[in-house]
Amino acid sequence: MQRRRLVYEGKAKILYEGPEPGTLIQHFKDDATAFDATKKATVEGKGVLNNRISEYIMVQLNNVGIPTHFIRRLNMREQLVREVEIIPLEVVVRNVAAGSIAKRLGLEEGTPLPRSIVEFYYKNDKLHDPMVSEEHITAFGWAAPQDIDDMMGLALRTNDFLSGLFLGVGIRLVDFKVEFGRVWENDLMRIILADEISPDGCRLWDIETGRKLDKDVFRRDLGNLADAYAEVARRLGIVQETPPGDAKGPVLVSDNTQT
Ligand code: UDP
Fold it and tell me: In this predicted model, what pLDDT tens digit does every residue of 193-239 receive, in sequence order?
């Protein structure tokens, strides 16, 4: 029996109706997908780690004045968020060439870019999320020129903040993807960060060794994905160090809620 009304089920998350109007519950699954969901697996613990990592990042972003949909974490796999009208774009910020830009422009992976670059992709699985320009975005009415300016500004501020945060724990932020949504306060519309920020949508490389600590571990079969995400969480201080010989895996810090 379904306890709550399901609003939307995606590849890695489920949205349920929230306890109050204008809120949703965002539930993180253990499912991992890549290459337009042609590669699929269940990675035990991924949802719990992404819930915690995304919470940590969204709280910090809110603290520095970057508005997000995050309200509070509810339990190990769920967080309460503001309901937004999602803008159907994936906004990617890149600092270093990797993935699709390396292929598209013939750049060697790992080449630093001349400056941070913001790209827009139209969210449409059937079309494989094609890259679009501001011309397409405004012509098809997905966002207005002012909305694009707001998204670029917020994306670049997020990039600066996250680059520093990860640099401090020995991780290079190569690129990441964010999504934005609209909220209305009286007659005023505001654009805020939505969705999640976790290793599922970032490229994170260890500065010393180049070890990948993101979804490329799954895409390219480089090892255990949850181990890589747990390493990110451990460095950020979200999970405690695992004592040597302890086979139980990472321990969540100060978690006083239930599963
Ligand atoms: N990304 C994402 N969802 C997508 C496509 C990309 O989260 O549907 C993230 C991806 O993890 C990477 C960044 O956006 O951190 C840039 O991805 P890229 O365009 O290089 O695509 P990919 O290599 O995933 O094809």
Answer: 999 999 999 999 999 999 999 999 999 999 999 999 999 999 999 98
23 lines ligand 1 (CB under 6 A): no
Here the tokens at position 168 are: 């401090």
Residue 138: partners with Cβ closer than 8 Å, 6 or more residues away: 144, 145, 148
Mean pLDDT (the chain) is 94
State the total domains in the chain. 2
Give the structural domain span for 70.
Answer: 6-83+225-241
In this structure, what CATH number is given to the domain that contains residue 148?
3.30.470.20
Asked if 61 and 166 sit in the same domain, the reply is: no
Are residues 119 and 168 part of one domain? yes
**Closest ligand 1 atom, residue 129 Cα:** 8
pLDDT at 33: 97
Distances (CA, A) of 48 to 40, 161, 259: 18, 23, 9
Q: Which residue, judged by its Cα, is nearest atom 8 of ligand 1?
A: 129
